[in-house]
TrEMBL record, chain A:
This is signal peptidase I. It catalyses: Cleavage of hydrophobic, N-terminal signal or leader sequences from secreted and periplasmic proteins. The chain crosses the membrane at residues 19-37, 139-156, 162-178. It comes from Eruca vesicaria subsp. sativa. It is an enzyme of class 3 (hydrolase). It comes from the Eukaryota. Its main location: membrane. The keyword Nuclease does not apply. One of its GO terms (cellular component) is signal peptidase complex.
From TrEMBL, chain B:
One of its GO terms (cellular component) is signal peptidase complex. It is found in: Endoplasmic reticulum membrane. InterPro entries: SPC3. This is Signal peptidase complex subunit 3. PANTHER family: MICROSOMAL SIGNAL PEPTIDASE 23 KD SUBUNIT SPC22/23 (PTHR12804), SIGNAL PEPTIDASE COMPLEX SUBUNIT 3 (PTHR12804:SF12). It comes from Eruca vesicaria subsp. sativa (Garden rocket). It comes from the Eukaryota. The keyword rRNA processing does not apply. GO terms for biological process: signal peptide processing.
Length: 180, 167
């Protein structure tokens, strides 16, 4: 009960200048996180330099909750590379391996067929109707590095939104009640 | 400055930093491993070689694959993904890579193997250019680490040729 009393007292005693300083500090933290994220996007050449593995189609190599670091260069896709792609009309990125590559003479256009390591069939069933190959514009990046388990926070927060709200609420309370 | 909250925060930050540092070092140590993989592939038989109704050539082969990939395993290796791809050029395509067989090797003991199988994935061309075609069989491997950077390499074996006529 004493803690609640203290919290109410500290909320009552906030002055305007202190509030503004705290708001600016918060804004700085959020902005620098955004700057780091955008810089990463530039350096790695992809729109999402880090993805979380959501399905079991690449087990035992990648489990659900693992984090993949992506990189995209002008080099054409080659067989065996692990690519992350979006199918037209669906917004969940898929992480699978390229098993067939056909590169055209002269134009350098590349047709790619992918398959998850743990799947029995290739991904033709996942592509859009009438699409048999992936092209460069579908591919977001190549996986070049990996960290296990780190992605579970993201999965928990997206599957149980209540956790997200509790976390943001607690952080907000902490910011308001801290004296510095 | 000495409340529980501050101490817990400092401890957590320190723990995460040390963890990230250890993961980076583990990944970096993979650069120092001495890797000497070896492989041999033999085509035992061309089972059949047809032009399919959709106009593309397809061939079915029986392969004999011998490989020793044990030296690729380090303490930071989770698995090695090995696959054999047929690589060839046609007048339309500057490069074709068709994966014929793959395997996930989870342990060092299984990395030295001999296997005789027909192709796991269909060897279909874009077009009908395969008659009399010279091609390479390449054994690729992708090492997936326990943490950190993944790396890949390959051994190219050339000198294979498809028959001049369908059968």
């Amino acid at each position: 009960m004493g803690w609640i009393g203290e919290t109410v007292d500290s909320i009552k005693s906030i002055k305007i200048r202190q509030l503004l300083t705290q708001a600016i500090t918060l804004g700085m933290i959020v902005t620098s996180a955004l700057i780091i994220w955008k810089t990463l996007m530039c350096v790695t050449g992809t729109e999402s330099p880090v993805v979380v593995v959501l399905s079991e189609s690449m087990e035992p190599g990648f489990q659900r909750g693992d984090v993949l670091f992506l990189h995209m260069t002008k080099e054409p896709i080659r067989a065996g590379e692990i690519v992350v792609f979006n199918v037209d009309g669906r917004d969940i990125p898929i992480v699978h391996r390229a098993i067939k590559v056909h590169e055209r003479q002269n134009t350098g256009h590349v047709d790619v067929l992918t398959k998850g390591d743990n799947n029995d069939v290739d991904d033709i069933g996942l592509y859009a109707d009438g699409q048999f190959w992936l092209h460069r514009q579908h591919i977001m990046g190549r996986a070049i590095g990996f960290l296990p388990y780190v992605g579970w926070m993201t999965i928990i927060m997206s599957e149980k939104p209540i956790v997200k709200y509790i976390l943001i609420g607690a952080l907000g309370l902490l910011v308001i009640t801290s004296k510095d | 400055m000495h409340s529980f909250g501050y101490r817990a925060n400092a401890l957590l930050t320190f723990a995460v930093t040390i963890l990230a540092f250890i993961c980076a070092i583990a990944s970096f140590s993979d650069n120092f491993s001495n890797q000497t993989p070896s492989a041999q592939i033999q085509i035992l038989n061309i089972n059949w070689f047809q032009k399919q109704p959709h106009g593309n050539d397809e061939v079915s082969l029986t392969l004999n694959i011998t490989a020793d990939l044990q030296s690729l395993f380090t303490w930071n290796t989770k698995q090695v993904f090995a696959f054999v791809a047929a690589e060839y050029k046609t007048s339309q395509n500057s490069l074709n890579q068709v994966s014929l067989w793959d395997a996930i090797i989870g342990e060092k003991e299984h990395a030295k193997f001999w296997i005789q199988i027909s192709n796991k994935y269909r060897f279909i061309d874009q077009g009908h250019n395969l008659r009399g075609k010279d091609f390479n069989l390449t054994l690729h491997w992708h090492v997936m680490p326990k943490t950190g950077k993944m790396f890949a390499d390959k051994i190219v074996m050339s000198g294979y040729r498809l028959p001049d006529a369908y059968r």
